[in-house]
Amino acid sequence: MNPQVLSVIAGVSGVFGTLALFGYFFLQQNDAKAPDRSLRELVEGERLIDGDTLVAILKEFPTETGRFNALKAILKDGDKARTILEQAEARTHAVELDRQQGRGRARWLMISAFTFLALAGITLAAAFAAQPTVPVKPPVPLATHDFEVFSYDRKLDLSQWQFVPDGHATEKLSPVLWNDKLKVRRLNARSKSFVIRHATTGIVTPEFSSDTHHVEPHETVEKPQEGKLYKLRIFDVSLDVSGEPVDQWFPLELKAKYWNACNDPEKGWAAIPIVHPTENLVFEIQFPASKPVETWERRVGPRDTTTSDLITDDAIWIDPNNQVLRWTVDHPQRNWVYKYVWKW
Q: Which CATH code fits 147-343?
C-alpha cells in the first residue's frame, strides 16, 4: 500500500485510540464517585440531613439496625429515618446497575483504545517498511584514477522547500532538487561506471535520473567518524559510461529529488565531495522566495575527518534578494568536501 495512505490510517487510528482511552478514564472516575453523589442528592433535596453525614453513617455502620439507630438519633424521628434508609437502599441498587452498565462501556472503550492504538503502530511501521528501497552495497572507493573531471556544476534548488512535521516524515511533501552537470574523461577501458555520492537527512528514498546515462543507485553505509554527526542515508549512484570513448571528454548529468530534506526551519547545510581530479567546481544554492538566506559560511576539509576550515575569499556571488549563492572554486582539492552552512 502507498506509504502516504498508511500514514493517514496511522494518524486517524491514533486519534480514535486516544479519544477512546480518555473516555475510559472518564467513565472510571465517574464510576468511583457515583454512589456517594447519588446519596447526597437524595437527602440534600429534603433538607433533613447533610449528604456527607448520611454517607459517613452508611460507611461506619455495616448493619441495617446500626444505621437506623444512628440516623434516628440525629433526626429524632424513627419514621423519617426508616424512610431515608429505604430510599437510600433503592437508590444504591439503581446506581449499582448503572455502574455495571458503565463498566461494560468502559471495557468496550479500553478494547477499542488498544485496538486503534495497535492499528496505528502497525500501519506506521508498515509505512516505513513500504518506502522504496535500493540495493545496499559497500561504499565505492572515494579516490580513484579512472576519471578526470574538467568541470563540475552542482545546483541545489530549495525553491519548493517547506517544513514537514515529524508525523508526516514519510510523505512526499517538500521536494529538494539537485542537478549535477559534469564534463568527464575516461582514462581507461576498464572504467565502466562513474559514481556520484548523495546523502540525505530525509526518510523517503530519493529519486535519481539522468538524461545522458543509465543510472543505478545503491544505498551504502560509512564507518562513523568521531565528533558531531548528522543522521544520513547515503547513496552511491552509478552512471553507465561503458559506451563512452576512452580519453575523450563527454557530458554527464545526474538529477536527484530528495523529499523532506534540510528540514530544520532555522538552519541547514549542503556539501559536495570531490572524488576525482577536477579543474573547476561551481556549487550553487537557490533558496525559497519566502525564506531567503540570512547568514552563511563556506567550509572545506578532508573527506575522512570531521574538521573543516572557514573560507573567506570573494569567490562567491550572491543575488540582491539573498536567494542564490554561487561558489566557484578553481582546482578543488581531491577527496575534500566543500560545504555551505547557513541560517535562513
A: 2.60.40
